Amino acid sequence: MKRVTGPGRRAGESVFKTAWQTVTGVEPVESFPYSAPREGVLGPEMVRSGCNICFNSCSTRVYRRGDRVVTITGNPDDPVTGGHLCPKSQFLMQMYYSEHRVLHPQRRVGRRGEGRFERVSWDEALDGIAEKLLRVRERYGSEALAVFTGSRSGLLGLDGTAQLFCQLWGTANHSGTNPFCGTAPDLAFLMTHGVEAGGSGNIFAEDDVWAGDLYIFLGDNMAETRPVNFGQLNERRLRRGARMVVLDPRRTVTAQKADEWLPIRPGTDLAFALGCLHHVFSHDLVDREFVASWVEGADRVKEFILGRGYTPEWAEPITDIPAATIRRLAEEYARTPRAFILGNRGLSQHTNATQTFRALIMLAAVTGHYGKKGAGVLAITSAVPIQARAPADRVAPRRPAARRSPAGWIEAMVSGKPYPIRALIMTGNPLSLWPGQAALREGIEKQEVVAHIELFPSESSAWADYLLPAATGIEVGEINRYAEDRRIVWIEKVIEPPGECRPDIWIWIELGKRLGMKDVLKEEYKDPVRLWDETMREDPRFRGLSHARLKASPTGWLRWPILSEDGPSAETLFLEGS
Ligand code: SF4
After folding, report:
1. Are residues 56 and 172 located together in one domain of the fold?
2. Alpha helices in 286-344 (DSSP H)
3. Which residue has a Cα nearest atom 6 of ligand 1?
């Protein structure tokens, strides 16, 4: 199709307006698309799809006119979103029509960091990368390759083709963004809930989360980060008169919506949770019946908390929250049967994150806030058990990862300890986002090959040897998952990628072909439907989540686990008495 490029923006003119005018030739209203009249805005052809800009996984309706996407709206048949989308969804169109998009494979011509490239063909780029990878493997071993796949790669790229590639190549140095954000709650849930819950807190459906009488948010700015779900929750809790308390160092948008905002000192949520636990144990606020039936080890937790003297008075100078407030909140929480704790990135990016989540989960458990609707601990986690696995006889032997977190790879890049990393394939923007940027640049200089797969040029591209143009979810066909309530959304392909952009799965398969992997990274898996159905649903909990069923679902999603092809979609897990 013809690539559409805008005429360039004038000062004060919005990106949306430029794209809209260019695509449709229709004069837009000022705040396109939110106050635009529906008539004439919706294209004649509608495709049901989804948004993967964030993990809210909103289902969408994408309207086309000919081969152009003209409007993206919410899906009114989706009970979770209620047909709403947030403004970020419109970036799907903006990304497609952006004049800044990387459209062709490029090879570095300047120094690393300069960002000077020449256009090359896909064959030249992939042949060049493959040749250098083989040289690195010969000199340093297969573990000298590190692969970082950020969330933009999508689940099929990240946990599908990139996984298979690394298994066949023989490197354990493959990671997404989890170690920076999701690993702490994952571990805490695994240690407290056990593996039955998928090693995570993913046990809820939307009517659990909406049914609380008290919501305590810690380090979770849901109103800005998952606005659609927050809107649904907030609307219902206001109708029911449910109270909302936000502990956050900043007066976030979420805090502004709350009944009470408690500015807590950063990184001290663990002390707050311990202070609450102390008050609960020392004031007979334990739900004895629930604990006797469902909780193991509560006595040992009590002994530990009381023995260490983690009183609210102890927590006050650490958290900056008065002891009396901690006592009042602990009391209110323990006495409110349907109460939710929501904790997120504001907790999980501190060094004490795993223990903070454990303490909050223990607080919920000893006060009986599990096993019923409207109660629990909710945190975005990444532990959705979807992962492609190569046949056992094709998995190459590999050394343990240099470190589990990509931030730990920098040491291996710079000093060669515990072994050298000398090749990096990355998506996202590590050269802006990883900690230790100066050391990372030093490590990058020592790489024999660096490839960057992305939509737009960034600081990371500037340091790469090859820049490979990727495609977005709606240009590919993709899966997104909502970590909080186990929704799996199929994002239907609605438009061809612009220029020479290619899906991440295509890039990994083509690179694999050059390295003797075509028996596993098969040509036919360039079709995302076949990749999903044939390689990524081995876990019995995903047996019923075929592409055909996802596509047929009027909501645009299904909730795992579904144990057989025609089995029911699961709702709340582990309801007492179920
Ligand atoms: S909340 Fe997230 S998934 Fe939903 S429309 Fe906004 S960016 Fe997309």
Report:
1. no
2. 288-294, 298-308, 312-319, 323-335
3. 86
Residues 280 and 230 in one domain: yes
Instruction: Classify residue 197 as exposed, middle or buried by CB count within 10 Å of its CB (0-12, 13-18, 19+).
Output: middle
Using CA positions, which residue lies closest to atom 4 of ligand 1? 58
What is the tally of structural domains in the chain? 3
253 and 352 in one domain? yes
In order of 1, 35, 544, the CA distances from 30 in angstroms are 29, 8, 45
| CA 152 – ligand 1 centroid, Å | 13
287 shares a domain with 246: yes
Task: Write out the two tokens for 250.
Answer: 């900043």
Q: Which residue has the higher pLDDT, 227 or 194?
A: 227
Gap from CA of 306 to ligand 1 centroid (Å): 44
Average pLDDT, the chain: 89
Query: Looking at this predicted complex, what is its ipTM?
Result: 0.99
pLDDT tens-place string over residues 148-188: 998 888 889 989 999 999 999 999 999 988 888 888 888 89
> N- to C-terminal Cα distance for the chain?
53
* CATH number of the domain residue 160 falls in: 3.40.50.740
Domain shared by 305 and 217, yes or no: yes
Q: Which residues pair with 209 in a beta bridge?
A: none
Q: Are residues 373 and 428 in the same domain?
A: no
Q: Cα Rg for the chain, rounded, in angstroms?
A: 25
Task: Tell whether 26 is covered by a domain.
Answer: yes
Strand partners, 228: none
| Ligand 1 pocket residues where CB is under 6 Å | 51, 53-54, 56-58, 85-86, 88-89, 226-228
Residue 19: pLDDT above 60?
Answer: no
Residues 304-324: tens digit of each pLDDT: 999 999 999 999 999 999 999
Domain that holds residue 467: 106-179+384-473+499-528
Give yes or no: residues 299 and 363 share one domain: yes
Question: Is 8 a member of any domain?
Answer: no
Please report, for the domain that includes residue 91, its CATH number.
2.20.25.90
Q: What is the pLDDT of residue 38?
A: 57
Check whether residue 59 and residue 175 sit in a common domain: no
Residue of 89, 485, 488 to test ligand 1 pocket, by largest number of atoms within 8 Å of CB: 89
C-alpha 84 – ligand 1 centre gap (Å): 9
Residue 64's DSSP bridge partners are 45, 69
* Residue 343: strand pairing partners: 218
What's the pLDDT tens digit per position in 454-494?
999 999 999 999 999 999 989 999 988 776 788 898 999 99
